[in-house]
Write a structure and sequence with these properties.
ten-stranded antiparallel beta sheet, alpha+beta, 2 domains, globular, 38% strand, SH3 type barrels
């Protein structure tokens, strides 16, 4: 992984259809942190992936050009601060404090779940689920060992946060 640090890569998993592309920022034995490159010359938030069942890491000549354009645009391809990849509770607590709202995905990529932290223990995470209209829709719980992907600071999440903030202003 060291040779890919701060470079654009794609990670393919044996058991997931989705391919994750971004700049490798950090990794541990259990987690991988990417600055998202969802398509073309765009940077959009961060993804933390469980370092499990990685089939391959792709980096071809097209990536060099994409990397060059992104850097010429002046887009940051690193993290503003150190994100603790020690264990899932540390990661979730950091995201809850620093970003408030984050997105979770399990092994199946059929659905993702946005929300803010309600409770966290050694086995389970409970979030206040955030619906697509920017309204909190109640509690959802996840077994920690089932969480495979966390995303945060994306345009989608930040857009919903704007709606939430606007609603809070109206209600005060």
């Amino acid at each position: 992984m060291e040779k890919y640090l701060r470079q654009l890569i794609s990670i393919v998993f044996e058991d997931k259809k989705e391919i994750f592309t971004g700049f490798l920022i950090d990794w541990t034995e259990d987690w991988i942190l990417l600055k998202n490159n969802p398509y073309d010359f765009i940077i959009d938030g961060y993804t933390i992936l469980k370092n499990k069942n990685v089939k391959s890491i792709i980096q071809d000549e097209d990536y060099e050009f994409t990397e060059k354009v992104i850097k010429l645009k002046g887009l940051k391809t690193s993290a503003e601060e150190i994100i603790p990849l020690k264990d899932l509770p540390s990661i979730i607590n950091f995201l809850a404090i620093k970003y408030g709202i984050f997105q979770i995905a399990k092994k199946s990529d059929k659905a993702v779940y946005l929300g803010k932290l309600i409770d966290l223990n050694e086995k389970e995470l409970i979030i206040d689920f955030l619906g697509t209209e920017g309204k909190f829709d109640g509690e959802m719980s996840f077994k920690l060992n089932k969480i495979r992907v966390l995303e945060f600071d994306t345009d989608y999440i930040n857009s919903l946060k704007l709606v939430i903030n606007e609603e809070e202003k109206k209600n005060n």
